[in-house]
Amino acid sequence: MAISKKGFRKIVVDGSEFLWKFNKKIIVSSEQFKNSLLIIDIGWYDRWLYIDDKENKPPDFEPKSITPQFVSESIYFALTKGWKEGKMEIVFTNNEYKKIE
Q1: What pLDDT shows up at residue 94?
Q2: CA-CA distance, 50 to 3, in Å (whole number)?
Q3: Contacts of 34 (CB under 8 A, 6+ apart)
Q4: How far is the C-alpha of 37 from the C-alpha of 64, rounded, in Å?
Q5: How far apart are CA 27 and CA 21, in angstroms?
Q6: Which of left, alpha, beta for 12 (phi over 0: left; psi -120 to 50: alpha)?
Q7: For residue 60, what are the CA distances in angstroms to 36, 45, 65, 93, 98?
Q8: Would you state the pLDDT for residue 57?
Q9: I want to staple 36 with a disulfide (CB 3.0 to 4.6 A). Which of 2, 30, 91, 98 is the partner?
């Protein structure tokens, strides 16, 4: 599953190159395995969309700075959970990672 490189940043984790970008969720793709896709959900949402719709508002989230170090840690977590090829989704909430099954 090759994806366009436009808007992606390069990062190296454990000697492997990855491309990532943030757009509501962090999207990561491996340079080595073209069919790999990692989606990191940090619970971000646009609060303005729910100003008049309190019933459907998602749970509050702790704002997280999306830095290369955070992305690197997220990729390392996914690699330790067996992500190499294919699609994996993880969630980062309350300073903990969880793999979505």
Answers
A1: 81
A2: 31
A3: 1, 2
A4: 21
A5: 6
A6: beta
A7: 30, 9, 16, 10, 18
A8: 75
A9: 30
Per-residue pLDDT of the chain (101 residues; tens, 9 = 90+): 455 667 899 999 989 999 999 988 999 999 888 889 999 998 877 777 777 887 887 776 666 788 999 999 999 999 999 998 899 999 998 888 999 87
Which residue, among 57, 73, 90, has the nearest Cα to 13 in the 3D structure?
Answer: 73
Distance from C-alpha of 90 to C-alpha of 99, rounded to nearest angstrom: 4
Task: Record the tokens describing residue 22, joined without a space.
Answer: 């943030």
* Residue among 25, 7, 4 at smallest CA distance from 100: 25
d(CA 22, CA 32): 21
Strand-pair partners of 16? 13
**Residue 83 near residue 97 (C-beta atoms within 8 A):** no
